[in-house]
Amino acid sequence: MNKQNQLFLIGEENELYENITAHLPAYELLHISVENWSEDLRRYDPTIIVVYQGENTLSTQIIQEIYNEFPNVSILYVHSEQDFSLLRDVTRAGAEDFLIAPSEIDTLESRVNHFWQEQQSKMEAAVSSGSYKKGKGQIFAFYSGKGGTGKTFLSTSFAQTLKLESTAQVIHLDFNFQFGGAETYLGIESNRSLIDLKPVINELNEHHIRNVSEKEEHSKLEVLLSPRDAEMAEKVDEEFMIRLLRACKRSYDFIVVDLPSSIDEKTFNVLEEADRIYYVMTLDTPAIRVLKHVEDLFKRLGLQTEERLELILNFKGRENELTKKDLEKFIHFPVSVEIRRDIKGVQSAVNQGVPLRKATKEKKLIPPAKDIQKWVTSMLK
User: DSSP E strands: which ranges in 185-252?
Assistant: First the structure.
């Protein structure tokens, strides 16, 4: 799904809605109902939203709430008649433009195009000033249907390398609520965990997150650790996870999420929120069978994987049963990277309680660290 052509329409399915859709043929239009707009919009990362008049639409209130939740979004309001009082109110609420239909409907596409140009200019200005990096607010979800693939090791190493190789704001979220794991690979000891954000989840902001997160010593990567407690894990619901992800998207450039292998509503919602899903697997027949089962489940659940899901082939070595070429005969998903096997090198770091890397420019890196560094640097270009 190309976000450059994505436009969100909030309102009722009325004559005005039909008129708007007829004048925006170049865009992928996603209609959001008035009743569930907040819940539905959280599943996306909207750039431009068109709110339009309806019999039961409280336009000013909706625009205000949208602006509070998505402060960087551009909002256009469409009304059926000139109303200076309403124009003042919706502008104060956060709308950037006000259009009258049908008298001004022919200018709708040009106004939307202008919004896109403004958004692009803002991004370019932020990049040149160093306040923005490619991938602003992007969620990378690491998942595998099979245990023992090295998923947590790769997600933590990926996040730490992202931080070392850029000036981006990066946070790692450990959503393995019962047993954790990120703290082991990053050498972090703490009694704090993401469950501590539960009391403030409805007004969650960057300040709350930074108060609870830990920093990895060498890269200064921020990490929200798992509670590592089955009873505490039961207190985490889908709403908590979505609100946490949404708050992180507003405050960080990259959000790296480590997910458990089991699929429930919480895991599914994170996968839906993710901009990219990295599926970690090994080069053997059982791994292919599990991936086939996962793919079938994703299809039945309606999870969009095209252009979003990529494979990470871990433990690459001569002793593997299969090669990448063999895998490509059975699997249509693209391979993002192959990570070489180095059990001794990785195990040594884990036993010492230190991450694979300690500085930006290190000469002696073990093979997996080199592979991850090459992968991340190519992605950042």
Answer: 214-215, 222-224
264 contact partners, CB below 8 Å, separation of at least 6 = none
Spell out the residues 6+ positions from residue 292 whose beta carbon is closer than 8 angstroms to its own: none
List the chain pLDDT tens, one digit each, 381 residues. Answer: 445 678 999 988 888 999 999 999 889 899 998 887 877 787 777 889 999 987 766 788 888 888 877 878 889 999 988 887 888 888 888 888 888 888 889 999 998 988 888 877 776 665 555 444 444 589 999 999 999 999 999 999 999 999 999 989 999 999 999 889 999 999 999 999 999 999 998 788 888 999 999 999 999 999 999 999 888 888 898 889 988 998 898 789 899 999 999 999 999 989 998 999 999 999 999 999 999 999 999 999 999 999 999 999 999 999 999 999 999 999 999 999 999 999 999 999 988 888 999 998 888 899 999 999 999 999 987
Cα dihedral 122, 274, 35, 266 sign: negative
Q: How far, in Å, CA of 193 to CA of 207, rounded?
A: 15
d(CA 69, CA 72): 9
d(CA 13, CA 32): 10
Q: Specify whether the backbone of 49 is left (phi greater than 0), alpha (psi in -120 to 50) or beta.
A: beta
Judge residue 71's burial from the number of C-beta atoms within 10 Å of its C-beta, 0-12 exposed, 13-18 middle, 19 or more buried.
exposed
Would you tell me how many other CB atoms lie within 10 Å of the CB of residue 296?
Answer: 10
Q: Which residues pair with 77 in a beta bridge?
A: 51, 98
Q: Which two tokens stand for residue 292?
A: 């086939």
Residues 6+ apart with CB under 8 A from 8: 29, 30, 32, 41, 44, 46, 48, 49, 50
